[in-house]
Amino acid sequence: MDNYDQFISKKTDSLPDKGKISCISPSNIALVKYWGKRPVQLPENPSISFTLEQCTTKTSLRFEKCKELSDSFNFELLFDGKPKPDFKPKIQSFFKRIEVYMPFLKNYKFSIETTNNFPHSSGIASSASGMSALAYCLIQLEKQIHPESSESYFLQKTSFLSRLGSGSACRSIEGPVTVWGSHKDIDQSSDLYAIKFPGQLHENFANYQDTILLIDKGKKQVSSSVGHDLMHGHPFATRRFEQANNNISRLKEILSSGDIDAFIEIVESEALTLHAMMMTSFPYFILMKPNTLSVINKVWEYREDTGSKLCFTLDAGANIHLLYPEEELKEVKEFITRELVAYCHKGQYICDKIGLGTKLL
Ligand code: PMV
Prior knowledge:
Helix 2 crosses helix 3 and helix 5 packs antiparallel against helix 6. The chain has 361 residues and is α+β, with helices and mostly antiparallel strands. Helices cover 34% and strands 23% of the residues. Strands 1, 4, 5, 6, 7, 8, 9 and 14 form an 8-stranded mixed beta sheet that branches. A 4-stranded antiparallel beta sheet has the order 11-12-10-13. The protein contains 8 helices and 14 strands.
């Protein structure tokens, strides 16, 4: 049974007066996808992801104790050094959701300063890096208030809070591989927070590369909350959730055995299944663009011709994540510049690889 009470921080009078905490947190890319949730931010199926290294959000949290306890949250938000009023409602509802676990929030006035190092509105989800960075800063403040709690408790609680900001954000705290959602074959797995993949990661996956091709930089046609909702009453939902559970069992073995061919089969099938779920929901969506399909076909051709282990995955949009072993870096980069850049929006792509999670600055 999941225990929420463990994350309720005890009230105390000894609150630090003021300070500043900064951290850097990465995005992550799911291999087995989370698509479908129940309240509040609980996944309908477990997911597993590679934590990234280069696509990050840097956040600084300044805090100052208020003279009197306020009855509302007191914060200002700067994005790339400028006020960002349209991000405030998201933070406001995040604070509201986590207040019960952090009863000191209304004792403070906060100034949150945040920047992403990947292009703004590039279609790359910034909510995973952004919400995990903010949760991490808040936990560092809680650490000053309750230094007696263990490091593993703080890690779990950071993931727990991040999840309440944006589901997939809970998988960004640690790396290189994390699992979120309770699964029969993964010890200690939980719907409440993500854990580090408990198995041994085979050396074939060391420094695994992720080159993100920016196919379409337009605003998302469907937000992920709307997308998750479409799994309620979806004709294939039950079967899909079973499939995700089976894929996690298989991937657990594959990540330890190093069988990249089997890895490719699951990862590509998961990407296409995610999009198949969107195409068969009501209302229905096609989030891939013609260039997405062209790249997928090019990747298949390249694999066929060269015996490469290059494969693709997708999130809920048109952009493509190309996953491949570090030893193929040179050849794949040549292939990308020779044949794939033409399909990218203004020729843009981002070179990333698996990383280790959130860091204090
Ligand atoms: O964290 P959300 O609510 O933005 O959902 C993310 C959903 C996918 O990116 C499509 C899949 C995943 O597991 O990250």
